[in-house]
């Protein structure tokens, strides 16, 4: 059995004794094995988190932040020393305490503007709802395209975009033909109501709307003459 596996298998009392005797000269692998032990306590996590020598190891910092037994003050402090894509993964990990995830979210939002377009695209595919909202109006269309494939994206977030004057015609066209989202009724209606939606994309949604909504849209001063004529033909 390796040293790491031996440490992982220690009992609660044996683990506490091992840490007390060896904390000042633990290796990276041993520190990680301690954190993997089912009997690790907040006190032991705190001792490791307070060791500048051990937290100099990136793997130890990452494991401490993700560990539910790490006192949250220490976990939140260590969040600032993690790489972007590890932060992204932690932000959607439900095993990470909510307080720590909120700190991660805040750090992600603070630094998103510093990312390259490629990094924003990669982030859009897997980020949580908080970061998704920040990326929703990204000037790069490829970021929005990636965001549409994100399993954590919500319908209400896209309704906000489809209703917003900040949405570009390219985004609205892409949304109107998206295989997953273009079938949602609230999104269809928002697309038709948005003057920035290309008229062909808006007109393609009309046949899916209720007559009461068609009349409402027809009476809206912002509705284009083209859409009004389309609605009149449908209502007849």
Give descriptors for this structure.
236 residues; mainly alpha; 3 domains; 0% strand; elongated
Short overview:
With 236 residues, this protein is mainly alpha-helical.
Describe it.
The chain has 236 residues and is mostly helical. It has 3 domains: 1-81; 83-153, no CATH class; 166-236, no CATH class. Helices cover 65% and strands 0% of the residues. It is built from 18 helices and no strands. The chain has helices at 3-8, 12-22, 28-36, 42-49, 52-55, 58-66, 72-79, 84-91, 98-111, 117-126, 129-135, 141-147, 155-163, 169-176, 185-193, 199-206, 211-218, 225-235. Helix 3 (28-36) packs parallel to helix 6 (58-66), helix 7 runs parallel beside helix 9 and helix 8 crosses helix 9. The longest helix has 14 residues, at 98-111. The chain is elongated. The termini are far apart. The model has no long low-confidence stretch (mean pLDDT 95).
């Amino acid at each position: 059995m390796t040293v790491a596996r031996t440490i992982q298998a220690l009992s609660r009392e044996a683990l506490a004794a091992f840490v007390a005797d060896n904390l000042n000269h633990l290796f990276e692998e041993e520190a990680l094995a301690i954190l993997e032990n089912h009997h690790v306590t907040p006190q032991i996590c705190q001792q490791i988190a307070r060791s500048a020598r051990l937290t100099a190891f990136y793997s130890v910092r990452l494991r401490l932040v993700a560990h539910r037994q790490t006192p949250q003050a220490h976990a939140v402090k260590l969040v600032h020393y993690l790489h972007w894509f590890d932060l992204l993964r932690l932000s959607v990990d439900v095993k990470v305490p909510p307080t720590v995830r909120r700190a991660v979210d805040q750090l992600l939002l603070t630094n998103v503007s510093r990312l390259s377009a490629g990094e924003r695209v990669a982030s859009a595919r897997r980020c949580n709802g908080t970061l998704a909202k920040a990326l929703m109006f990204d000037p790069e269309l490829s970021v929005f395209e990636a965001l549409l494939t994100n399993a954590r994206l919500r319908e209400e977030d896209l309704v906000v975009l489809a209703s917003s004057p900040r949405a570009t015609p390219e985004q609205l066209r892409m949304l109107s033909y998206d295989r997953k989202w273009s079938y949602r009724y609230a999104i269809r209606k928002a697309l038709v109501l948005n003057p920035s939606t290309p008229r062909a994309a808006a007109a393609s949604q009309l046949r899916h709307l209720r007559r009461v909504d068609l009349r409402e849209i027809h009476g809206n001063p912002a509705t284009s003459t083209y859409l009004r004529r389309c609605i009149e033909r449908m209502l007849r």
